[in-house]
Amino acid sequence: MSGPLFGKLAIVTGAGSGIGRATCRVLARDGAKVIAADRNLKAAEETANEIGTDVASAAEIDVSSYESVNKTVQSIVSKFQKAPTIVVNSAGITRDGYLLKMPERDYDDVYSVNLKGTFLITQQFAKAMIANDSKGGSIINLSSIVAKMNNIGQANYAATKSGVISFTEVASKEFGKFGIRVNAILPGYINTPMVAVVPEKIKEQVKVRCPLGRLGKPEEIAEVIAFLASEKASYINGAAIEVTGGLK
Ligand code: NAP
Questions:
Q1: Is 0.85 topped by the overall pTM?
Q2: What's the rounded Cα separation, in Å, for the pair 185 and 145?
Q3: Tens of pLDDT, residues 76-123
Q4: What class is the 9-243 domain?
């Protein structure tokens, strides 16, 4: 086996679907061993089985729970005898609705997964990398172009995705001295189950506004994640990279 990520161990959250699943495939293609983590264990297992259990394994995780994240870190380090040096925060949810009608629960749920989840995963896995004296860490956080477009009906989601950009920048400044790079990707509209629920009319409007005239494919985000994870991106740190087909 070879490839730019040969010898690396990666964990991808939200790996049972969409961008997370595509990322597992591409990281494994590039030579990494991959842990597909999702709150939906069956879906994570499907990802791992499809790639091949010699290079991929599945883990159940709820990124919004300290206990769940901590337990997963401990069991990974004990199983692989090292910490993953590639960490991809792809778990995310939407609970869209107009602000005046948004239930507190929908705000809290989106915050807990998208922003607090990114915090818990980043903190716990960075601690593990540092404790294991791992070299060349790369953490990649999924923000969204919605952090800049600020669509109506997405006050909760847009706020968390803006938060992910700020969080990423702070983490990149704090972790640089440990050789851990932290970057964010802002995808545009990507064809995944998350976007399947967006009304056709809105998707048509997005295509018209997008200079490439189409939605993106999960693999088109996964390829940028794989690049950021690799040594080819060794001087990219604290960046927020738009992958939108030019949609602004
Ligand atoms: P997706 O297809 O819905 O996949 C997200 C995965 O995360 C699902 O398997 C989901 O499980 C899992 N998940 C949700 N809450 C979790 C939790 N607490 N712990 C662990 N796993 C959890 O979404 P996607 O389109 O691939 O999106 C991936 C990331 O990219 C998200 O952060 C999203 O905000 C971001 N993004 C996506 C787009 C897009 O157009 N698709 C654009 C910009 C940014 P359940 O199915 O059980 O919820």
A1: yes
A2: 9
A3: 999 999 999 999 999 999 999 999 999 999 999 999 999 999 999 999
A4: alpha beta
Q: Best mutation site among 45, 162, 192, 214 for ligand 1, i.e. most ligand atoms within 8 A of its Cβ? A: 192
Indicate the residue type of 11: I
Residue from 160, 145, 36, 10 nearest 92 by CA: 160
Residues 6+ apart with CB under 8 A from 34: 10, 11, 12, 15, 24, 27, 28, 48, 51, 55, 56, 57
Q: Which residues contact 193 (CB under 8 A, 6 or more apart)?
A: 17, 18
- How far apart CA 136 and CA 125 sit, in angstroms, is 13
Rounded Cα gap, residues 65 and 116, in angstroms: 9
Residues with CB under 6 A from ligand 1: 13-14, 16-20, 38-40, 43, 61-64, 90-93, 113, 117, 142, 144, 187, 189-190, 192-195
Sign of CA dihedral 145, 241, 191, 212: positive
Instruction: Give 101 Cα–ligand 1 centroid separation in angstroms.
Output: 23
